[in-house]
Amino acid sequence: MLMSEMEIAGWVERGGQRLLSEQIEEIVRERPADLLQCGGEFFLAWGECRARDHFGILQGDCPKGTLVCSGEVRGSIEPAVPDLPLEDAIITAVRLRSDEGIVALSGGVDSTLVARLAGRECVAVGLEGSHDLRQARRAADALGLACTPVTITPAGIEEALPEVIRAIPKKDPLSTGIGLTQYFIARSAAEQGYRRIITGQGADEIFGGYVRYLETTTLGADLERDFAGLEQQVARDQAVAALHGTYLSLPYVDCRVVRAARAIPPGEKVKGGHRKVPLRVVAERHIPAELAWYEKKAMQYGSGVWKEFQRLARKKGYKTSLQDYIDHIGRVDHGH
Predict the structure, then answer these.
(1) Strand ranges for 59-185 from DSSP E
(2) Which of 9, 15, 62, 253 is placed for a possible disulfide with 202 were both Cys, Cβ 3.0 to 4.6 Å?
């Protein structure tokens, strides 16, 4: 088999060093077992073999974190990464991803820290006058970063809905609302010539970012459950990104960062009425404190997309059930 027949999606690293495509091909040709220690966000396909990154950030036709040949699992992909302090882990994870791409900036601590460390151009999306557009501009101005604001229109949401619903695996209101927001980020990135979109996704599940964590009595179990649910979220968002030939890159879902975060007791992550405390402590060493400790809404709310989605459903006669509206669009899309 010629190596020119090899498909390489995403990127691969070993020992904190990015591998060139020629190096990946050499490993596959001469030492395929070495792939089992590689990190990154990748899906590789050659001959009857497939390999996919540890957390399954890149989508592909084999289970996450496996090397499969002729339908048989040949090994688990467990990146050989050192134990690092949280700050060093985050800096390394962003560095490995920021040789190219655009940062999705909403102005919250997750994306603002990534934007600062990556130093790349940013994109922010939201309806006119939305919270996220204002907050992203504030963050970009404070950091001196270029940021393209993308104003979403009600007509644009109506036009995108069938595409998003068709693409996402789980067709429920929350998934649709988040998918819609991701749709406009991905479209803008593609229009600007980018394929990789660097995001702050995963920080809520790893560091304790959801509001409900403030009230729970089972924080550790909640964090584990929500981290396990990230796989479905990533599949949804990558499906939407793929509509525009782009993919999401997630520095917080890097093996180094996840390992460092898991070493922190749950009670240190949510305390004193604050969420994501360890991340904010790291962030204020790199960004202004008011941005590091700023509490913001989830993207589908802060962008104004959720409210407009609800308004559109009511306008179409679905006053009480967004799910019925989604199901209706699905039926129309299939010619029923």
Answers:
(1) 66-69, 72-76, 102-104, 122-127, 147-152
(2) 253
Count Cβ atoms below 10 Å from residue 129 Cβ, excluding itself. 9
**51, 76, 101: which is the final residue of a domain?**
76
CA dist 195 and 41 (Å) reads 13
pTM to 2 decimals? 0.93
Domain check: are 117 and 252 in the same one?
yes
The helix (run of H) or strand (run of E) holding residue 248 is: strand 247-249
Pair type for strands 7-14 and 39-46? antiparallel
Measured CA to CA, the distance from residue 157 to residue 96 in angstroms comes to 34
Residues of the domain holding 208: 86-302
pLDDT at 334 (0 to 100): 60
pLDDT at residue 1 tops 70: no
The answer on pLDDT for 335 being more than 90 is no
User: Tokens standing for 203?
Assistant: 């920080």
Number of separate domains in the chain: 2
299 close to 110: Cβ distance less than 8 angstroms? no
* Residue 333, pLDDT above cutoff 80: no
Give the pLDDT band (50/70/90) at residue 80. Answer: confident
Beta-carbon contacts of 110 under 8 Å, excluding residues fewer than 6 positions away, are 200, 201, 203, 204, 209, 252, 276, 279
Distance, in Å, from the CA atom of 259 to the CA atom of 241, rounded to the nearest integer, reads: 27
SS3 of residue 213 by DSSP: helix
CATH number at residue 175: 3.40.50.620
pLDDT for 252 beyond 50: yes
In this structure, are 34 and 64 located in the same domain? yes
Distance (Å, whole) CA 2 – CA 22: 13
pLDDT in the model for residue 3: 45
